[in-house]
Amino acid sequence: MSTRRANWAIPYFIFMLLFVVLPLLLIVVYAFRDNSGSFTFQNFVKFVSQPEAINTFVYSIGVALITTVLCILLGYPAAYILSNKSLNRSQITVVLFILPMWINILVRTLATVALFDFVHIPLGQGALIFGMVYNFLPFMIYPIYNTMQKMDHSLIEAAQDLGATPGEVFTKVTMPLSMPGVTSGIMMVFMPTISTFAIAELLTMNNVKLFGTTIQENINNGMWNYGAALSLIMLVIIGATSLFADSGDSQDNEAGGLI
């Protein structure tokens, strides 16, 4: 019986092998090859030796950090209000916050461009940050909201019974228990922001380049090896961020177990 159940996983395994593992392996292979197919580190040397590429990479990380911080500042209170039944008694409000996730990101970005054009606000870095926050804010709200919904509210009641003030309940009970959702939200916002390029192209009239734009331009120009090297650098950063987040989650779980 267990063997039959395991057979259901075979199609998913084949799908992951073809569309996840194989593309990643191709990126690694192309990154360490030159145009003649020989093994080389020249693609990475080229990245390090080009100030423009490094500046674009650092700028992209800065934009991702600003976007993530703004999404936390806006998303955490929203998630808290949505999950608190005394503050929000209608599930329709939750749907309104999650609804943008159902619309294609390019459609939302084009709508943002039209909005800025309608109110005669010039496109640029400010529009880029606004578009990033607007597009990725739901991805911050939903994980935090989902975590708060599943939170053991008896712990909050116990803290209140022991005489904790609302501020103490929030800082010592609610906030620590919601950290896994915050971590998931950070991952869902920070990583896509680094690699995106369509939002920057549309909201800055292609005047501001992000790291994803650099990768796209190199691949479109036939520089597959250098583009793969840049992609691999980005994947390493994302992987390191994921490991850091996973270690943070495990520490939170251990702390929760001690409580």
Q: Care to describe what's here?
A:
This protein is an all-alpha fold and 259 residues long. The protein has a domain of 158 residues: MetI-like (MetI-like fold, Orthogonal Bundle), CATH 1.10.3720.10. The chain contains twelve helices and no strands. Helix 7 crosses helix 9 and helix 9 runs antiparallel to helix 12. It is globular. The chain starts with a helix and ends with a helix.
Give the arrangement of secondary structure elements.
Elements: H1 2-7, H2 10-31, H3 42-49, H4 51-83, H5 91-98, H6 105-118, H7 125-149, H8 153-161, H9 166-195, H10 198-203, H11 211-220, H12 224-258
Helix pairs in contact: 2-12, 3-12, 4-7, 4-9, 7-9, 8-9, 9-12, 11-12
Number of continuous helical runs? 12
Cα-based radius of gyration, to the nearest Å: 22 Å
Q: Report the portion of residues in β strands.
A: under 5%
CATH architecture of the domain at 54-211: Orthogonal Bundle
Q: Let me know the CATH homologous superfamily of the domain at 54-211.
A: MetI-like
List the secondary-structure elements in sequence, H or E: HHHHHHHHHHHH
Taking the alpha carbons of the first and last residues, their distance comes to 40 Å
Largest sheet: none
Instruction: Quote the average pLDDT.
Output: 86
Instruction: Kindly provide the name of the CATH class of the domain at 54-211.
Output: Mainly Alpha
Helix content: over 70%
Shape: globular
As residue ranges, the low-confidence spans are: 254-259
Q: How many strand units?
A: 0
CATH topology of the domain at 54-211: MetI-like fold
Estimated structural class: mainly alpha
